[in-house]
Design brief:
Helix content is 79%, strand content 0%. By secondary structure, it is an all-alpha fold. Helix 1 runs antiparallel to helix 2, helix 5 packs antiparallel against helix 6 and helix 6 crosses helix 7. The longest helix is centred in the first third of the chain and has 25 residues.
């Protein structure tokens, strides 16, 4: 069973890397990547049975719904791909891990933006690809 767990985590990390690279260069997250994460989430129900169905269901909404609300109140705050990414990843990792991932991603994005603002590379009105930072948070949270 250890091999199945390692394979699933490796596949998840590979998808997160793909999400990061494509979002960084195109500012969009393809639904194809999200579909693969949903499939991995379904497989993880047998590989990681300690993460129950209720925890997974909460995982889909605990971050994505607040992100959607912020995006509605402040258009452009988050992209639809970022919101969907956190929803499908919540299905795979559960609500606790999804919260850790979002916090790590927000912190990493904040540090990046702060440095870029100080260096004069971006202004307060610029946008960044948030997917790579969420992917970083998800990768870190999986190992926490």
């Amino acid at each position: 069973m250890i091999h199945a767990k390692g394979l699933l985590v490796f596949a998840f990390l590979a998808v997160l890397m793909s999400v990061s690279v494509t979002d960084w260069y195109t500012n969009s997250i393809s639904d194809r990547f999200l579909f693969v994460i949903v499939i991995l989430g379904a497989a993880s129900m047998w590989v990681f049975p300690e993460t129950g169905i209720v925890e997974r269901m909460y995982g889909t909404i605990v971050i994505s719904i607040p992100m959607l609300a912020v995006s509605i109140l402040a258009p452009g705050a988050f992209g639809g791909g970022d919101i969907k990414l956190m929803a499908v990843c919540g299905w795979l990792v559960g609500w606790r891990t999804n919260i850790y991932a979002a916090l790590i991603g927000l912190f990493a994005a904040g540090c990046y933006c702060s440095v870029q603002l100080i260096r004069g590379k971006i202004t307060r009105n610029d946008t960044i690809a948030f997917g790579p930072f969420l992917a970083l948070g998800l990768a870190a949270a999986v190992f926490a």
